[in-house]
Every structure is written in C-alpha cells, then in structure tokens.
Amino acid sequence: MADEDPADDVELEARLADQGVFEPPESFVEQANVTDAGIYEEFEENWPECWEGAADLLSWDDDYDQVLDDSNPPFYEWFTGGTLNASYNCIDRHLPERADEAALEWIGEPVEEDNRSITYEELHREVNEAAALRDLGVGEDDVVTLYMPMIPQLPIAMLACARIGAPHSVVFAGFSAEALATRMNAADSEYLVTCDGYYRRGDPLDHLDKTNEGLADVDHDVETVVVDRLGPNGDDFGHDLDEDEHDYADLVADHAGATVEPVARDAEDMLFLMYTSGTTGQPKGVKHTTAGYLAWTAWTSQAVLDVKPEDTYFCSADIGWITGHSYIVYGPLALGTTSMMYEGTPDYPTRERLWQIIEEYEADQLYTAPTAIRSFMKWGAEYPANNDLSSLRLLGTVGEPINPRAWKWYYKHIGGEECPVVDTWWQTETGGHMVTTLPGVNDMKPGSAGPALPGLDVEIVDTNAEEVEPGRAGYLTVQKPWPGMLRTLYKNDERFIDEYWAEYSDTDSDDPEDWVYFPEDGAKVDDEDYITVLGRVDDVINVSGHRLGTMEIESAIVGVDGVAEAAVVGGDHDLKGEAVYAYVILEDGYEGNDEMRAAIVEGVEDAIGPIARPEEVVFTPELPKTRSGKIMRRLLEDIANDEELGDTSTLQNPGIVDDIRSKSDD
Ligand code: 6R9
C-alpha cells in the first residue's frame, strides 16, 4: 500500500463508495468449493433429499434410514436410524491422511513460546486421555459444563465429551459466577471443567475464584476438574484444590496413551447444550443433536467458508459462543482442516496483532464480527497495511448487521479487493449459516447478507404472515425445517414452541406445512431475493455481536440495593453496534449519584459479566408506561439514540419522556 499513488486511493474510495454490487473475484471462483448456480434449483426440487450430500460429508457407524422425519412437527428428526460419533468424525477418520498436519493452531497470550501446533495425532491422543472424565462418573447423556477461555483444553474437553456421548454445555469464560450457577442448575450438570485463571493483556486473571463463587450457588454436588493454565504465575491467587476438585493434568496422566472407543451415538442424540439470552430472565438451553448439527456445520464450512483440508482457517470468535462451536471446532475439524484459535485480544500487545498472526500463519480465511471490523477501521488502515495479508482468500462476518462502509473497508483493506466477503446471518438456534451469499456463485451487496442458502425456505412476512413486497420491512421466517436446527429447549418443549413457533404456526396442526420458525429478527428483501437483516424485534440487544436479554440486565439492576425499577434498551453505538442504556427508578431515600451508578454497573457485571455493562445509567422518577402499565421501550430507545420521539399519546405519563431526555443530556 505504501507505494500507492494517493490519488489512486481517492479514486478507489470513490468507486467503492458508489458501488452497490461486487462480483466474486475470478481467482476465487476458479478454485471455490461451490460454483454452480444451479444448486438453488436442484436443492429446491430435491428437498429434503438434497441434504444427503451434507450427511455424506460424515462417516457413519450405521447408515440412516430416513433423511427427515416430520411426523411430529416442530419436533423434526434428521437422518433417523443412523449412528455416528462426532469426535471420530472430527479426529480419527482424518488420521490416515492428516495425522501430522495441524488440527489446531493455538496462539496463546501473551507468551509467544506458549503457542501450540496440535496435530491430528496429538489431538487424538489428548482427547482420548481427556475421556478420563469417565473416572469421575461421567456417563452417556450426563451434561458436562465447560467454563474455560480460549485454551486448548476447551476444544479437547468438548471432543472428549462427544467421544463418550456426554453432551457439553460451554459457559463463556467472561460470564459471571451467577451465570455459571444458573446454567449448571438449569442443566442439572454435575460435572465441571474449569481452569485456575488466564491472561488478559498480559496479566494473569483469577478464574477459579469466580468458579467457586458460582459453585456455591449450585443446588447439587459437582465434581470439578481444574486446568492449570497459569502455572507459577497463578501462585498469587493461592488456590489449593479441595477434595471434590481434580487436577486436569493428574486425571489425564493416569490415562497416558490410552485409547477410548468412540461411542456410537444415535443421529438424534444430544451433542451439546448452549444457553442463550431470551426475552425472559431465564436463559434458553438450546439443544443440538449429533448428525444434523455436524452435517450442517461441515456443509456450510465447505460451501460458505470455502474450507478445504489444506487450509489454515482463522475464526476470531470465542468458543464460548455458538460461532466458535460451529466454526472453530465442529465444522472445520469435521472437514480435516487446520483451525486457528487465538487466546488474546486484537490490540494486545499492539493493534497489529491480528494481522501479524495472519501473516505468520498464512491464514486462508478470516471470519470475524462487524464490531471488530469497526474497531479496525477506527484504528486505521496502516496496521493491516504493515503486514502481508495476501494469503487470505475469503473474509466472513457474523453476529450483527454490517454497515456498507465497514463492509467496503474490510473488502479493501483486509481482502485487497481479491477476497469475497460472506455476511452470514444465523443464530445459536440454527446451528450454522442460513442467509448468506455462496462466495463462488453470487454477487455481493454490502449491507445485505444475501439470499437464503439452497434448500432453505426463508420468507419475509408481515404480522398476518403474508409475504411483504421487496423493499418493505417485515419479519424473517423459515418455512421449512433444516438439519442444523435446534431440536428443543432443554427440558422445556413448551417454551420451545412458544418462543420460536407459536407466532406464525397453527400449533394444533400436525401438518409440517403449518409450522413456521420465527427467529425474532426483522428483515427486508430486494428483487433478487437478497435479504437485509434489520435486527432483533424482541427484547434482546446485540452488544458487539453478543446477545443479551434486556430482562436479564434489568433483573440484575433491580437486585442492587436502593433500586426500585429499571428499564434497559439498546442504543446505537459506533463500535459495539448497540450499547446498554439503563433507566432507573430509585427507592425513596436513595440518591442518583456516581456511587449509585457504580453500584449498578457492578451489579450487572456480577450478574452477567462485563459485556453487559451499561454505557449510560439515567435516574428518573418514572418510566414511560402505557395505560396498561407496559414500559414503552421504543421511546427509551428514541431517547438513547437522540432521535425524534415516536407516538407518546398512549402513555399514562407523557411528560416523563422530555424529563428523561433532559436528564440524558446532562
Ligand atoms: C451466530 C450468532 C443471533 C442474532 C440473530 C441476529 C444477529 C447474527 C447476523 C445478525 C445481521 C448478520 N445476527 N448474524 N444480524 N446480520 N450477519 O451471532 O448467534 O449469538 O445466537 O445471535 O444475531 O439478530 O438473531 P447468536
């Protein structure tokens, strides 16, 4: 970039700014996994058998009898009668050809010599050793909670669980003690793998203390395994293991070199649970099963992320979220590729860190979130320009809508205008990608995710379930089941129906045609079936690509001494996409001062984690409410975003909004 004529750059900027459609680069198309535009029609005509190809990407112990059993909607079953093991599919079957190739490239933080290249053979050994979890009593179908940051033992433990048929429930390490306890209680999980601590920006951070605080609130006995991540650097935390705490290294050492037969799991047996935020305070335990999920993540990794076994593929998400499950661990490893995992943050020790990693490892793909791209943009193009990013072949984004400006910056400054960008819309519940371009097939339109994947029936509808015209905003719905879909909410079929189906389905019907999945996102579609996702239409906000329930945050705030009532909304934020704005009513005798504000922020951090920290706390004597007593969050959003106020005529207290607005301006 340095020797470029600045005039060219200005011209280029202008051209990119005007451009609404980008063709897939020829050099990419020439080598892409999927290039035939006929795939859309072919899948439509051949539905649901079109998904046999995805199932063929897996190795089965017993073949399946039926692609889809839709006799009891919405409890769809896929590849029924088949048996397989996910750990076998992600490891063992690659050994004949790829034993010495890296399965995981782990880039630790901060000590360079910590980096580990873990070959498929080594992964095989370590996963077999970690199957020692059985010594603690873990049996098939016992839920094992994994509360670890981005260290190799996390994917190793996930695959060890899969090997012995024990579903895992990964709790993001940045979540609080309380969040851990809620999830362990909800899943009746009697086993936990955690670690002593980890590094953040070079400093050791205690994790076991938070774990133990969470365990104190778990309502049953738990066997805990502790990974020693920090070694002597953790000595200051002064942790000694209790009787019911086991040292990970000791546990696996007892099984050095042992191999454990992968348990043949039924296609529909649970592979894992992942808790995600919903409209109520109680997180939802999304249940994914073995065959459909694995087929979906493998197929989309191949078709959308263009993953090939010889690639070095980099997804910068945390494994504690669904993106890391599907697109660091299961999808890429099922395809036998090299998947990178980075423990640190993109700006430590410098803002070049990510680009140095990409150069050093010659990464072929980069899959990240718009919130990260907006930060890179703010920092400046000189950081990526200092590094050779020419190994990159494809770029991806996930987690929230990406604005065209950020899209174009990514395309130009990271991809050098030679990499397609896939903007992938999907959810924890969908298991994998749903709406995105196929990078070797479709043109790209910045800001629009693209058409629904082949074999999916996505419609944008109005409140009467009628399809809306192109250009008009409506609700995104999925009209037919797909293999990667969640099967239910753990132990709560009723809530599963209520949350995702009731809105647009005839819930008395047993005809699958009458069942429609509603992901609670708003969207619009253009003449070419390209879908622009507009964001959540429920009380979930999206901070830096992370889903947070406003109810969860509100109940944390109300838990703070002196708080009477609280309403939380998402306000626009340049970097985070959305930020948390809290409007709080105090009890008599309490004062809305900095101390109170700090207590509220702390209360939220304790209950959920730092990601949910309110950007602004506004004290108010009242909240805008309808006559039936419902808080009008829309008006609070208008205030947070400094926008003109919507209709206030249905309020019982219309004066309050101006009052709150003047307080927000202070
Ligand atoms: C994978 C993941 C899901 C919610 C989803 C939507 C938003 C995700 C998006 C996107 C616009 C995209 N979302 N990808 N919005 N464009 N490409 O993020 O799962 O944490 O469950 O969040 O994220 O609102 O409903 P999850």
UniProtKB/TrEMBL annotation:
Q: Where is the Acetyl-coenzyme A synthetase N-terminal domain?
A: 39-90
Q: Does the keyword 4Fe-4S apply?
A: no
Instruction: Tell me the keywords, alphabetical order.
Output: ATP-binding, Ligase, Nucleotide-binding
Family stated for the protein in its record: Belongs to the ATP-dependent AMP-binding enzyme family.
Kindly indicate whether the keyword Nucleotide-binding belongs to this entry.
yes
Q: Which residues form the AMP-dependent synthetase/ligase domain?
A: 96-482
Gene Ontology MF terms in the entry: 3-hydroxypropionyl-CoA synthetase activity; acetate-CoA ligase activity; AMP binding; ATP binding
Q: Return the EC number.
A: 6.2.1.1
List, for all copies, the residue spans of the domain called AMP-binding enzyme C-terminal.
552-630
Query: Under which name does UniProt file this protein?
Result: Acetate--CoA ligase
Gene Ontology process terms (BP): acetyl-CoA biosynthetic process from acetate; carbon fixation by 3-hydroxypropionate cycle
Show the segment(s) annotated as Disordered: 642-666
User: Which PROSITE patterns did the record assign?
Assistant: AMP_BINDING
The UniProt entry, under InterPro entries, shows: Ac_CoA_lig (IPR011904), ACAS_N (IPR032387), AMP-bd_C (IPR025110), AMP-bd_C_sf (IPR045851), AMP-binding_CS (IPR020845), AMP-dep_synth/lig_dom (IPR000873), ANL_N_sf (IPR042099)
